[in-house]
Amino acid sequence: MTFCGSAVNIQEMAKARILIVEDSKAQADITGAFLEKNGYEVVCVHDGAGAIKAAKTESYDVILLDLVLPDINGNEICRWLKLNSETRGIPIIMLTVESALKDKVASLEAGADDYLPKPYNEIELNARIYAALRTKALQDELRDKNRQLEELLAKVELQSITDPLTRLYNRRYVETVLEKELAEWKRYMSPMACLMVDVDHFKNINDRYGHETGDSVLKELAALLKHSLREADTVARWGGEEFLILLPRTEKDDAFVTALKTLRAISGWRFGQIPDLRVTVSIGVATAGGNTDTPVRLVRAADLALYEAKNRGRNRVEISPEKMLWDERQ
User: Fold this and answer.
1) 3-152, which class in CATH?
2) Which CATH number fits domain 171-327: 3.40.50.620, 1.10.10.10, 3.30.70.270, 2.40.30.170?
3) Active site includes 241?
């Protein structure tokens, strides 16, 4: 369907595809010929099984459904179509010789969008089809706008928790994750570790090669960090050239192995814009425990371990509170 503001394009509606479900072939032929004359594309079936098969395999804009069919009651077909996610949006106009109020109510309760008793006037039938198409088109437009809005909100939400340069999570988001992980640790005593990673002598890279190259290094580094971690782990840009990594369900020894693996991956990597320069990082590791039972204390412990790694010559892992060291300098 095509829209101009909120008005439905009549020419587009005339090209709609209609499924006629009618047990009388003569009646189906008459109705079909009239609708085709008015520009509609028409498909006819003569029983309930054929109606369900047609609706499942082809796309239709309106279904004209006879209440009395040789195999399945029209209301049952209507109910099935409205329960199926792929067909529930198709308007259904019920056609029947039954004119009692209870029959109309039963069809509407089954999900029919409209009801037209036989014998019906072809002009009225065309008007009912037009009304059904107009309603469907407006509903489709509303669904499309809602989908676009949901996509926009999802994009805005992602941007709000993402660092624009590295495409990693930002500090605000990882602080939320840290609180959640520590709450789980307190409840289930599930081990967790925190890694603070800092690029060694990053100022020298900016001063020597420029900030554009420095940004390129940070983006490549972010990709390396993500590649070296598990899906359950969280890595974020903490600020500047610092990165924070959360390792849920991770003991201290395993955190050390992960930190060492990360350290070696970075020191052995040739960065695109400065392939001849060896870029290294220092890593501080802390695990949740008695003195590191809050986000501030845990991050502070990892930061102090990082500071110790810097003091001891950089390009190394330092674990707090115990002094487990690994020096990768050559």
Assistant:
1) alpha beta
2) 3.30.70.270
3) yes
